[in-house]
Design brief:
Blueprint lengths: L12 E5 L3 H4 L1 H12 L3 E5 L5 H5 L2 E3 L6 H14 L5 H7 E2 L1 H8 L4 H8 L3 H13 L3 E5 L1 H4 L4 H14 L10 E3 L6 H6 L16 H11 L12 H9 L5 E5 L3 H4 L3 H10 L2 E6 L11 E4 L8 E4 L4 E5 L12 H11 L9 H11 L8 H4 L4 E2 L23 E2 L18 E6 L17 H4 L4 E4 L1 H7 L6 E5 L4 E8 L7 E5 L27 E7 L2
Parallel strand pairs: 1-2, 1-5, 2-3, 4-13, 5-6, 7-8, 8-9, 14-18, 15-17
Antiparallel strand pairs: 10-11, 11-12, 14-19, 15-18, 16-17, 16-19
Helix pairs in contact: 4-7, 4-8, 4-10, 7-8, 13-15
Length: 527
């Protein structure tokens, strides 16, 4: 997030696009509700009529995968009606003319044909966003999990820069992270192309710096593989072994039958986790990891806040903290890792990572700190880009709308979208072992519009078979007008409804994220 969670409450205008905030981020949604009580305008762009959409002043119920057309049309209105922040654009951005030329054809009428959102609604929202004193954009994987996910984010950033709604309080471009430490994992270099703090592996000075501290020779200059590329490599024999930590791709990755096939072709699979997940069940070796309550460390949350995690109990059984397991494995392989503690590791992180340089366990004892924090006397950074962007001038990246990789047709007439439920988390590894949450939400269902259900002869509670070009699952139907005609929705939390058997592995060419939010399916009543 460019801005802090608490700042959402101070926004005058909130555009929540591709985010089911009340279910997926209930604490953050409280700030949006607070802003609304204070008089803010809340606009939700989502194919489903979620609880967040019910709270909204305006619900733009767009067609799945049409975000760029909608955002470009808003930019079109703002430019054609001379509503953009001319001082901000002139002094802090570049390539405005390129954006202007690209969005010229995205009139509200043209976008309405693509998105299904009325032209006048697009105009109203664009004017409200441009004229607001402080406007924030919230988004999640409803924006990113598309073959054009990177371009969707460009379109969001274009809109924020166009109106100068960035670099100040209660504004910004704010992706809400889906798990408690996914921001921290990325910060720590759990990406194939960067070291800690997003330092590219392609820069020689970065490689030299890390190689010196790690006491190794030359480090590779070529970025590694993404998860999808790893699975492809395993399936065709290029990847021989895999070490999976705290991830359950058998349920979470698209076209999951293919994932199982890929993992079974490996010569050696190691899984490090706190439970025997569906993925761990395929492993040659399972390394038992400690849970958050059994170890010391830090989490970095969605607002870039680094916070201490303190050990409450000793690890159960043979479990160890992840860092200890990694050290033991590395040492056994001939590279001694002899860190004394999690704090020792964090000190090294701070030495090598400019954005973390001023953070230490001693400081974190007093409370969380938001990076960038470049020195020990720096208070942390509540919001980014205050005076200038990291690259100097903010760059407009004009983007064109492209449709999803799969469109409904005669054989597969519905669009399937997936997401989260309020009571569960990811693949249910933890939340379906509580003995309590399962009582509140014990089984999954498929949301289907009552008119579509009537055409299929399906009544509420019937078991339906959902098929795509990749697989099929059976699930109970729930008739609801939360979804429009032609769209069905369910979550990926339940192993017994392994919905990612159906989803499309087609990937964004830049970020390589798969198009989990749109695939074509057939729905039929199970006999």
């Amino acid at each position: 997030m460019t801005n802090s969670i608490r700042e959402i409450a101070g926004a005058n205008f909130i555009l929540a696009i591709g985010t089911n905030t009340t279910e997926s981020h209930p604490i953050i949604s409280l700030q949006a509700k607070k802003a609304k009580r204070n008089g803010a305008t809340l606009v939700v762009a989502d194919p489903r009529r979620t609880e967040m959409a019910e709270l909204a002043d305006i619900h733009m119920q767009l067609n799945s995968g049409s975000d760029i057309a909608l955002l470009n049309a808003m930019a079109n209105v703002i430019i054609s009606e001379e509503l953009w922040n001319k001082d901000f654009v002139a002094n802090r951005t570049e390539d405005f003319e390129a954006l202007k030329q690209t969005v010229a054809k995205y009139t509200p009428e043209y976008a309405a044909e693509i998105t299904g959102v009325p032209a006048e609604t697009i105009r109203e929202v664009a004017r409200g966003y441009a004229r607001a004193k402080n406007a924030t954009i919230l988004y999640t994987m409803g924006v990113t999990q598309h073959i054009c996910g990177t371009h969707n984010v460009f379109a969001v950033a274009n809109l924020a820069m166009l109106c100068g709604h960035i670099g100040k309080e209660s504004s910004g471009v704010n992706p809400l992270r889906g798990q408690n430490n996914v921001q921290g994992a990325c910060d720590m270099g759990a990406l194939p192309n960067v070291y800690t703090g997003y330092q590219p592996v392609t820069l020689e000075e970065n490689r030299a710096k890390f190689a010196k501290v790690w006491n190794v020779g030359e480090l590779p200059a070529k970025p590694g593989l993404t998860v999808g590329e790893m699975m492809e490599g395993a399936a065709d024999g290029r990847v021989k072994a895999m070490y999976i930590m705290g991830e359950n791709p058998v349920l979470s990755d698209p076209d999951s039958d293919h994932v199982v096939h890929a993992l079974e072709k490996l010569e050696f699979l190691v899984v490090q986790d706190i439970f025997l997940t569906e993925t761990a069940a395929l492993a040659d070796v399972v390394l038992p990891a400690a849970s958050f309550a059994e170890k010391d460390g830090t989490f970095s949350n969605t607002e870039r806040r680094v916070q201490r995690v303190r050990k409450a109990i000793d690890p159960v059984g043979d479990a160890k903290a992840d860092w200890q397991i990694i050290c033991d494995v590395a040492t056994a392989m001939g590279y001694p890792m002899q860190y004394a503690s999690a704090s020792d590791i964090f000190d090294e992180i701070a030495r090598l990572t400019p954005s973390y340089a001023g953070i230490s366990y001693a400081r974190l004892e007093q409370g969380g700190i938001q990076w960038p924090c470049p020195s020990a006397d720096h208070p942390g950074t509540p919001y980014l880009h205050k005076d200038k962007f990291v690259r100097g001038l903010g760059k407009f990246n004009p983007v064109e709308y492209i449709p999803p990789a799969e469109q409904p047709d005669q054989d597969y007439p519905f669009v399937l979208s997936t997401g989260r439920r309020h009571f569960h988390y990811h693949t249910g590894t933890m939340t379906q072992r509580t003995g309590a949450l399962e009582v509140h939400y014990g089984a999954e269902h498929l949301e289907i519009n009552p008119l579509d259900a009537a055409d299929l002869g399906v009544v509420d509670g019937d078991t339906v078979r959902v098929k795509s070009r990749r697989g099929q699952v059976e699930v109970k139907a729930r008739l609801t007008d939360v979804v429009p005609r032609g769209l069905v929705f369910t979550s990926f939390h339940f192993p017994e409804v392994a919905i990612n058997k159906l989803t499309n592995p087609a990937r964004d060419p830049v970020a390589k994220i798969p198009e989990l939010k749109v695939c074509a399916v057939k729905v039929e009543k199970a006999s």
